[in-house]
Specification:
By secondary structure, the chain is of the alpha+beta class. The chain is built from five helices and nine strands; from the N terminus they run H-H-H-H-E-E-E-E-E-E-E-E-E-H. Strands 1-2-3-9-4-7 form a six-stranded antiparallel sheet, with no helix packed on it. Strands 6-5-8 form a three-stranded antiparallel sheet, with no helix packed on it. The relative contact order is 0.18.
Length: 198
């Protein structure tokens, strides 16, 4: 599934990606190898000719050593509201959609709103990413969190804090769409090639 925005958004993302890559003095082939993809595929993304999934964005951010949100940030950031209609939105292959809410480049935290279809999980099995603090708030619906050897059922308004170094995975138990707010500090996507979504 591709970025949920029109072609213009893909072009804007591609331009930002190319800019970040060049700022870091990295070639297409080096970033592609680190991100476990072909240089041709990365070039297509940079030219705005190909959309990206959550997993791909996370791998590219890790290859560049930056946060996921910084790939959607403007070159010159100034404090201003992020309107719902302007959120960078990418779709995962597991039945969830992720909105990136943190936009400032090189910020010390990442914020995501993730919407899960009925029965959807954010991974095939519990995963880890870096060694950061992670905060989860259920905005609506009902979710199951597997955390290390424990299982938690979380209802709307419930929250939990955890270490990203502990294996974890969430699954939507609601018969409709569930939504959750995730905050990660510091960002993990630029630390080991993985971000919130494994």
């Amino acid at each position: 599934m591709e970025i949920m925005d029109p072609k213009q958004e893909r072009i804007r993302f591609g331009n930002r990606l190319r800019s970040v890559r060049k700022q870091r003095g990295l070639t297409l082939s080096v970033v592609a190898e680190r991100a476990d993809m072909t240089a041709g595929a990365l070039s297509q993304i940079e030219r705005g000719r190909s959309g990206v999934t959550v997993e791909t964005v996370v791998r590219i951010a890790g290859a560049l050593g930056v946060s996921t949100g910084s790939l959607f940030a403007e070159e010159e950031w100034t404090p201003q509201p992020l309107r719902k209609a302007d959120r960078a939105q990418i779709a995962g292959s597991e039945g969830y959609v992720e909105d990136i809410l943190s936009r400032r480049p090189d910020v010390s935290f990442e914020v995501f709103e993730v919407r899960y279809m009925p029965g959807a999980s954010d991974a095939e099995k519990p995963y880890i990413h870096g060694d950061s603090e992670e905060f989860l708030l259920i905005l609506r619906g009902r979710m199951k969190l597997l955390l290390d050897d424990e299982e938690f059922i979380l209802e709307e308004g419930d929250s939990i804090e955890l270490q990203t170094s502990l294996p974890h995975m969430v699954t939507n138990l609601y018969d409709g769409e569930s939504a959750a707010l995730w905050v990660i500090s510091p960002p993990t996507s630029g630390r080991n090639g993985q971000g919130h979504s494994s």
